[in-house]
Amino acid sequence: MCTILLAWRCHHDARVVLAANRDELIARPSAPPGVLSPSPLILGGRDLVAGGTWLAVAADGTICAVTNRNPGVEPPAAPDPTRRSRGAIPLALLAGDRADIPSRLRALGPGRYNPVNVLWLDHDRALVAHVDDSGPVRVIELAPGRHVLTTRDVDDANNPKVAMLLAGMDRVLETDGDIDTTIAGLRAMLANHTSASDSPVDAACIHGDVYGTVSASTVIAGEGLLVYEHAPGRPCVTPFEPVPIAS
After folding, report:
1. Please, what's the b/e burial string for 50-84 (b: 16 or more CB within 10 A of its CB; e: otherwise)?
2. How do residues 201-247 score in pLDDT, each as one tens digit?
3. Full-prediction pTM beyond 0.70?
4. CA–CA dist 47, 90 (Å, integer)
5. CATH superfamily of 3-242
6. What angle do helix axes 160-173 and 179-190 make, rounded to 10 degrees?
């Protein structure tokens, strides 16, 4: 994923309302969401090059997602092929021992993976880990409210794209509507082609011949509630379809 919109504990009956676009090389093959692990049951799309995933959703509503990380102003460096695949992180964190997730997030770097942002959500916590070569991993606990994670630091309002998305989430959530209203508003944001700068990659829905938005997902999770839906193409033209929560 490269754009994640999160309403964390903004609705009393769903602690997680998440909407995300996956931005990737157009030619890179992937499989739509399916079973990544049968026990514990974990669902998600699969990258058919490196074998990992960008978003993993467990049957109990725990979620882990990754975005590439590029906090600087320069274009991102080419990935180091000798490092571990970032796409392996979500499944490893969900399938393994969840007793001390902050420690496991801090153990992701530096030097083990190419720069990556990791989002972890369970019934009690929302955590973001910023992993790069600048120093120890920074693990941030998110407060209830709206959050935006791209290739930058979480909620970095100094970045034009993040600032635009935060403002959009404020407009969606200020209506104090139900979950369906929130999801509809977030999906409209994912489908928006407005760029926050002169660069086309500063839009939520990126159209490019080589790189762009290739799919989108939304997840609603709460006590006894899990709804995972996926658009297998650009969300501006592709309907969302339910992902069956069963093996």
Report:
1. eebbbbbbbbebbbbbbbbbbeeeeeeeeeeeeee
2. 999 999 999 999 999 999 999 988 999 999 999 999 999 999 999 75
3. yes
4. 12
5. Penicillin V Acylase; Chain A (3.60.60.10)
6. 150
